[in-house]
Design brief:
The complex is a heterodimer. Chain A is α+β, with helices and mostly antiparallel strands. Chain A has 2 domains: 198 residues, no CATH class; 209 residues, no CATH class. In chain A, 54% of the residues lie in helices and 19% in strands. Chain A has 15 helices and 12 strands. In chain A, strands 2-3-8-5-7-6 form a 6-stranded mixed β-barrel. In chain A, helix 11 packs parallel to helix 14. Chain B has 2 domains: 198 residues, no CATH class; 164 residues, no CATH class. In chain B, 55% of the residues lie in helices and 18% in strands. The two termini of chain B are 29 Å apart. Classes of the chains: A alpha+beta, B alpha+beta.
């Protein structure tokens, strides 16, 4: 084994001998890694935003129903004893808040117009802490605990019915036994969430009045849980299923209706989950192409610098430096370049993520101001750990490719030809 | 003279030139491929949405879309259809649309009730291709209906069952009629699988007492003709002083969500592309700077021979222009070929999605590229390549001959 320390020293000095060249190569690496870090954080931030908006707009992180309710949406399958469920929720860690709802599809009508509606009986004050519904009120006000026959309508529904604040609306829905029950409510507020299903359908009324109107006693259909964050959801769902001997909501409508089902946000509406899975696949392709571009540019820079140094390598070869030694020297140079470039790149990218994570990237000037599909036009980049690992992997791959190829070329140079080269 | 010199310099050092050209070409090709992917998803989404049910343009009596009442029927169906024929439109159909309550065994559901002309409908939309069980309504049918799969399940109905529909007729009185379920649609779209019932136009006409009156005319149009067609329809129907009797709505006037989604994602994409452009520009600057470094000796001699600093700069700049053009041309060819190849093969993302299509996206993506995106990208890459070569040119102009010659 030959002594390598001289080549370590030589490689180090080579880098300092041409500060501009070294600087350019490091810059290429750093820029590439910073770009990848930033873009992938932008994507992660976007996905996180969709999930959060979805969960907090209305659905919550998980819901407990009577077995079979989510599939059939029949009032007959309601939770007769909410206190029992509340007991099961007691003492579970990671719960932000809990509220009960009564959900039924019905008909809203005023003189001269009617429209399909989704009626939500809610606990006014608890709902305010759990979901963002109260915050979406654009006209009038949100429900108060003291309200009785008050309703907050989605603005699309209100427009269809042509009602305004203070107008009376009759809500009709079918009871357990098939009879139609109706009740008069006065419009106290209009809300706009940007989610079509809510704006065009929702009629939000106080839970107590809804229970009386629909002859439900203390019964509710949904017990909605907001967790402290998404990481808690799977654990909570598992624990609750155990405590309540509950299913996952996939039982057929024929299943016995005495039990419970516990469903996470992604099971309640697979849409948000599927959408983020698709968006993820989509951006993965984009990122893959960006990685390719970064690799190509880094390789280019390295090749160019090898090319420039042909004469130097030729001279070293003529002086008796062996191929393997030359190979080792160039690899060593690359290791230093890549390490410095990666650190700089992660720092720059991390700074950009931190900065824009705070400020947000406002796309509303490109696209009209809106919020739908649980998206808002201001993106807050967020660096996920998985993505960080992915980028690190790409950087190391880049280093290997960008280092090995030129090193191999340098080692294979024919001294005489290399020195002749201008 | 300078041009000749630049040309020879580019050719003389083939390897250096190739590396720079490759830097530009890879960047441009990657950008074009990304646009192709993006535009492919978006265009197929928009096409699918229009073909599923809503069409590209709908013509109603003014105000009908926001406040659908059967008394607001189209003032003159014949006149609209004559105009469409005059404008050379072939894909159009007529409908009656209203709101109905469907009564099941132990529950009921609010539905959009659509009366369609079975012959013409299948030429305009592809709803009939989404029928998973049974068949679509066909000419000569009596009271038949087609339901979305979710609605059918919620109402507990199977093929052959009868469905009672309640709706307000033209005069506001409640009308009810019985329809036999002949087909079930499963499209994966919530708005179709849930909340829609389709019946033959003639049956609905009879039930609601419409006597040949229509509420909607649906037109299918290719995207590039959409704006012109809308303008012509507005001119032809509302332009003659009879004060806005019609509303002519493009698909995104009615359902702006998807258009906004596409706009937003394009904005997101422009940021991505901006970053990629930065990388490409840096790559070009690197290679050109590196090559000026390598050519110090050569530059020093040129300066010593009396070539002025600015002429040298012009030479370096011109070389970059040549490299930029060559790189762009190569990138254009490679990028467009990639788009073309994958357009044929399709990129299968079905493992990432459910087997069902949603949001009108096919799980197999066929890239295609919009002309404006192509041009913007090409122009930006050329510009970035040129801007990136300004720094090296400026450095060359400021060289001192003696120092340069001595440069290692």
């Amino acid at each position: 084994m030959f002594d390598l320390s001289i080549y370590l020293k030589l490689g180090w000095r080579n880098l300092w001998l041409h500060p501009l060249r070294t600087g350019l190569t490091v810059a290429a690496l750093a820029l590439g890694i910073a770009a990848l870090t930033f873009l992938s954080a932008m994507n992660d931030g976007w996905l996180q935003q969709i999930r959060t908006n979805f969960a907090l707009t209305m659905t919550g992180h998980l819901q407990i129903h009577a077995s079979g309710f989510q599939q059939t949406l029949k009032l007959a399958r309601h939770i007769k004893d909410p206190a029992q469920v509340m007991q099961a929720l007691d003492g579970l860690a990671g719960i932000h808040s809990v509220t009960s709802r009564l959900r039924v599809s019905g008909l809203a009508s005023v003189a001269g117009a009617n429209a399909g509606a989704l009626v939500y009986g809610v606990e006014a004050d608890k709902e305010r802490h759990l979901s963002r519904l109260a915050g979406f009120v654009t006209q009038g006000r949100w429900l108060l605990d003291s309200d009785d026959r008050a309703v907050v309508l989605g603005d699309g529904l209100a427009d269809r019915l042509q009602v305004a604040l203070g107008d009376k609306v009759v809500l009709m829905a079918a009871l357990d036994n098939g009879d139609i029950a109706s009740e008069v409510f006065r419009v106290r507020g209009l809300l706009h969430s940007g989610v079509l299903d809510i704006d065009d359908l929702a009629a939000v009324v106080p839970l107590g009045r809804a229970q009386q109107w629909l002859d439900m006693g203390q019964g509710v259909t949904d017990i909605v849980v907001r967790a402290d964050d998404f990481e808690q959801v799977t654990g909570l769902v598992d624990q609750l299923r155990q405590r309540l001997h509950a299913g996952d909501g996939s039982q057929s409508a024929a299943a016995d209706s005495s039990g419970y089902e516990v469903m996470s946000w992604s099971e309640i509406d697979p849409m948000a989950e599927q959408w983020s899975a698709f968006a993820d696949a989509y951006t993965w392709i984009v990122l893959a192409v960006v990685i390719l571009v970064v690799l190509a540019e880094v390789l280019n820079t390295m090749l160019m610098s090898m090319h420039e140094r042909s004469r130097e390598f030729g001279l070293m070869g003529a002086l008796g430096v062996r191929d393997s030694q030359m190979f080792f020297m160039v690899i060593w140079e690359t290791v230093i370049l890549v390490s410095v470039g990666s650190v700089l790149g992660f720092m720059t990218g991390g700074w950009a993520v931190w900065h824009f994570g705070k400020v947000g990237i406002d796309l509303s000037q490109f696209a009209v101001a809106f919020s739908f599909m649980y998206m808002s036009p201001v993106i807050h980049p967020l660096l996920a750990f998985d993505s960080l690992l992915g980028i690190l992997g790409a950087a190391i791959l880049g280093a290997v490719v960008a280092g090995l190829f030129p090193a191999w070329k340098a080692a294979r140079l024919d001294p005489a030809a290399a020195m002749r080269e201008v | 003279m300078i041009f000749q010199l630049a040309w020879r310099n580019v050719l003389r050092n083939a390897r250096r030139s190739l590396i720079t050209i490759a830097a530009i070409a890879i960047g441009l090709a990657a950008l074009l491929f990304l646009w192709g992917f993006n535009d492919g998803v978006h265009n197929s989404m928009m096409r699918n949405l229009q073909q599923a049910i809503i069409g590209s343009v709908q013509i109603h009596a003014d105000g009908y879309f926001r406040h659908p009442k059967l008394s607001r029927d189209l003032p003159d169906v014949q006149r609209v259809e004559d105009l469409l024929i005059k404008l050379g439109v072939q894909q159009y159909t007529r409908r009656i649309r209203t709101f109905a309550l469907a009564a099941g065994d132990d529950n009921s559901e609010g539905l959009v009730l659509l009366g369609v002309d079975p012959v013409r409908e299948v030429r305009v939309t592809n709803l009939h291709t989404k029928v998973s069980r049974g068949r679509f309504v066909s000419p000569g049918d009596g009271n038949t209906c087609v339901l979305g799969a979710t609605t059918a399940r919620n109402l507990g109905l199977t093929l052959g069952d009868d469905l009672v529909l309640l709706a307000a007729d033209r005069f506001g009185a409640l009308a009810a009629d019985r329809f036999t379920l002949v087909g079930i649609v499963e499209s994966g779209e919530m708005g179709i699988d849930r909340g829609l019932v389709v019946v033959p136009l003639a049956s609905l006409d009879a039930m609601l007492g419409m006597q040949g009156r229509m509420t909607d005319i649906i037109v299918q149009s290719p995207p590039d003709k959409l704006e012109a067609l809308t303008a012509a329809l507005k001119q032809g129907l509302n332009g003659q002083g009879d004060a806005h009797a019609y509303e002519i709505l493009r698909w995104y006037d009615m359902y702006p969500m998807m258009k906004q989604w596409v706009d937003l994602e394009n904005a997101f994409y422009y940021i991505f592309l901006g970053v990629v452009l930065l990388i490409v520009a840096a790559g070009v600057m690197n290679t050109v700077l590196m090559s000026t470094l390598e050519r110090m000796h050569e530059f020093g001699i040129m300066l010593a021979l009396g070539c002025g600093g600015w002429r040298l700069a012009a030479l370096v700049g011109l070389e970059s222009v040549l490299l930029g053009l060559a790189g762009s041309a190569l990138g254009l060819v490679v990028g467009l070929s990639l788009v073309g190849i994958f357009h044929h093969l399709g990129i299968d993302l079905s493992s990432q999605m459910d087997s069902i299509t949603r949001f009108y996206i096919n799980p197999v993506i066929h890239p295609e590229i919009d002309t404006d995106h192509l041009l913007i990208t090409l122009a930006s890459v050329l510009l970035a390549a040129l801007l990136a070569s300004l720094v090296p040119a400026w450095r060359a102009a400021r060289l001192q001959p003696v120092e340069a010659i001595h440069h290692v």
